[in-house]
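Thread: quick sanity check before group meeting

JM: Hey all, I'm pulling together slides for Thursday and realized we never actually wrote out the predicted structure for the chain we discussed last week. Dropping the sequence here so it's in one place. If anyone has concerns about the input, flag it before I start.
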Amino acid sequence: MAPKFGTSGLRGLVAELTPDLVAAYTEAFLAVCPVGTGLHVGRDLRPSSPRIAGDVIAAAVRSGVGVHDCGALPTPALALAAMSAGAASVMVTGSHIPADRNGLKFYLPTGEISKREEAAIAAAFEARLRPPPAAPGSLVPSPLAASAYVGRYVGAFGPSALAGLRLGIYQHSSVARDAMTEVCAALGATTVALARSDTFVPVDTEAVDRDTRSRLAAWCASERLDAILSTDGDADRPMLADASGRVIPGDVLGVVTARALGATAVCTPVSSNSMVALVPEFSSVRLTRIGSPFVIAAMEDVLAADPTARVAGFEANGGFLLGFRARAAAGDLAPLMTRDAFLPMLAPLAAARAAGRTLAELVEALPPRFTAADRLAGIDPADALALLDRLADRDVRAAFLAPAGREAALDRTDGLRMRLSNGDIVHLRPSGNAPEFRVYAESDGPQAAADLLAAVLDRVRAALANDSSILAGDA
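JM (edit): ok, ran it. Output follows.
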């Protein structure tokens, strides 16, 4: 499958992200999008990223653009550095997907590109548009571009925000592994490095596998940890586990973080935990399609109606977007409307410590709605879409859902989100970035959500294998 835009950025197999293709996409971006003062380029730690970043840089310099090579750094750190300089940026990353894939994330001087701009870049790529001829641009190494990102959180939370906490940093191949350690230590915590890897590890914070969950629990017990912090490969998705090693879902982190910062308006995809609508502090909740461009568009609509709105956004994967100037314990946090992994880990930890609670106790005080999510890998997108087409028939859905319950409502904002008569939720959608089929489940207890997820995964697996009994209503 040729590289294409998904829920966030361009993704494809490394073998298909050839120097010519990467150059053509870079030139298309430069031809149809403003770059302001120039272009910042960053990358994650997967083996193919240095070469692809070099291809982006070479194409931009040939096009007459001044380039800052920021090296390996978190995606939100690159976005912050570029936006602060009034520059565009390109992040080379495949995020959480395996190392045989990679991709490009494009940013304007004002932030992430929209779906409209994605379409313009794709059209320019097909037409092989290039920016006007120009003298070669400059190339400046910028190895300290991440320092402002670290300073953002040290300045906002202060040197005692995490004092007394013993925090594990699950480093694996996260590009943020050193920055996480630096920030937590500067906020007063004792840090313990865990499982640093020279081989790329595809950590999906939205579907943490059983082996990883077991390791988290074992580390918490053996190292006497208060929490474990980690991220996906490019650090725009958090993974935070409490003192028992239990992973706190990203949409729960989003609710806690938005409350801690005083947000009153929230924008989040339809796949997020429905507890967001039960939080009294949130006077406005807007549900979107899945993907940060849709969340950002909704946040911009809120701000267009009221520029003083205290609006925040988050996704089920935990990526948090701040749309207003918020106050933390020691200073202000300027808006950063791109997915961030640090804020939705630091804010809950700081809030729990300030309240004299454990992280688990802070989460337990939220409305009791629980989610579970997983994916089936290696699913041809055409097969996934064909299954959703069949499930568009109400009788077919009824047969599919029969072991779980009866459908009470259907939401087709993104995939099929089915609310059952007992209040449980089943949500099915193909991934926008990889050949995967995503399944989400929600119930009023963690075990009930896990059981519902397991049952629905089995039925999706069987349906994709053409087991006719699963879709008995399909005559």
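AS: nice. The chain has a mean pLDDT of 94. The domain at 370-471 is CATH 3.30.310.50 (TATA-Binding Protein).
JM: adding both to the slides.
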